[in-house]
């Protein structure tokens, strides 16, 4: 029986940076303007929830003003020839808007909010601000649907299982510095070729890896040609 080969793409902030999404780690990025523990940790939320709420309201407004770039679009186009799952550390919805259909958000989603007491009570809010004091349906304070430092990553086991089944693994625009997400690479089959796209040096100790040292858009253009021209579009089982 033949089926499409499975691609799993691990994506990080480098994919969305070219759309104009401000990143934390780049020069001039958000790390220089904010203490990460003040705006991206559960302790920060408990200490100053109004600051955290304003921070993510600003991120959400920015998201509504940008568009997917060619890296997002090419990844979506690969679904014509491959079974593609995107596992992203990004909290934006640019993969969805580009047309990708199977996406796992490890760190939450900007366009959603949730109860402060029940992590499973999630509501869609689009690009609007969460007003200070706004309540979730259960009466608790409505908070961004973001996985902060100090909180469990609920989708990590699902993502690990998906990575373990990949015929091809892509790593796009991520420094592989944030755990547990960075540890997902270790679940890949030794038989699976790995393609890493990043303009910067990324420390990766494994083998069977092809490095494309480009920004996400140009790197994905090159990768698409490599994959489509290859002989492993179909796998027999």
- Please give the share of residues in helix: 25-40%
Q: Which stretches of 5+ consecutive residues score pLDDT under 50?
A: none
SSE pattern: EEHHHHHEHEEEEHEEEHE
CATH superfamily label of the largest domain: TPP-binding domain
Strand order of the largest sheet: 4-3-2-8-9-10
Distance between the termini: 5 Å
The main pleated sheet reads as:
6 strands, parallel
Strand composition percent = 15-25%
> Treating each run of at least 4 consecutive H or I residues as one helix, how many helices?
8
CATH topology group of the largest domain: Rossmann fold
Radius of gyration over C-alpha positions, nearest whole angstrom: 18 Å
Which whole number gives the mean pLDDT? Answer: 89
Please describe what this structure looks like.
The protein has 237 residues and is an alpha/beta fold. The chain has two domains: 1-21 and 68-107 and 153-237, 3-Layer(aba) Sandwich (Rossmann fold), CATH 3.40.50.1220; 22-65 and 111-146, SIR2/SIRT2 'Small Domain'. Helices cover 27% and strands 21% of the residues. The protein has eight helices and eleven strands. It has helices at residues 13-17, 36-39, 42-47, 49-63, 70-77, 94-98, 156-164, 216-228, and strands at residues 2-4, 6-11, 83-88, 103-105, 108-115, 122-124, 142-146, 168-172, 194-197, 209-212, 234-236. Strands 4-3-2-8-9-10 form a six-stranded parallel β-sheet, sandwiched between helices. Strands 6-5-7 form a three-stranded antiparallel β-sheet.
């Amino acid at each position: 029986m033949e089926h499409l080969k499975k691609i799993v793409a691990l994506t990080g902030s480098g994919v969305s940076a070219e759309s104009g999404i401000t990143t934390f780690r780049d020069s001039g990025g958000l790390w220089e303007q904010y203490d990460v523990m003040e705006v991206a940790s559960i302790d920060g939320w408990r200490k100053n929830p109004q600051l955290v709420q304003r921070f993510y309201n600003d991120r959400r407004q920015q998201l509504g003003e940008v568009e997917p770039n060619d890296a997002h679009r090419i990844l979506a186009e690969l679904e014509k020839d491959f079974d593609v799952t995107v596992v992203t550390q990004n909290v934006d919805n640019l993969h969805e808007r580009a047309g990708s259909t199977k996406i796992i958000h490890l760190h939450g989603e900007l366009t959603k909010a949730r109860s402060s007491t029940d992590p499973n009570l999630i509501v869609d809010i689009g690009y609007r601000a969460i007003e200070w004091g706004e309540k979730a349906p259960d009466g608790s304070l409505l908070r961004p649907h973001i996985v902060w430092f100090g909180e469990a990553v609920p989708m990590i086991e699902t993502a690990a299982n998906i990575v373990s089944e990949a015929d091809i693994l892509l790593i796009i625009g991520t420094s592989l510095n944030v755990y547990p997400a960075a540890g997902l690479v270790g679940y890949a089959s030794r038989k699976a070729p790995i393609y890493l796209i990043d303009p910067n040096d990324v420390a990766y100790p494994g083998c069977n890896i092809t490095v494309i040292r480009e920004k996400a858009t140009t790197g994905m253009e090159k990768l698409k040609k490599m994959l489509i021209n290859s002989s492993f579009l179909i796998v027999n089982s």
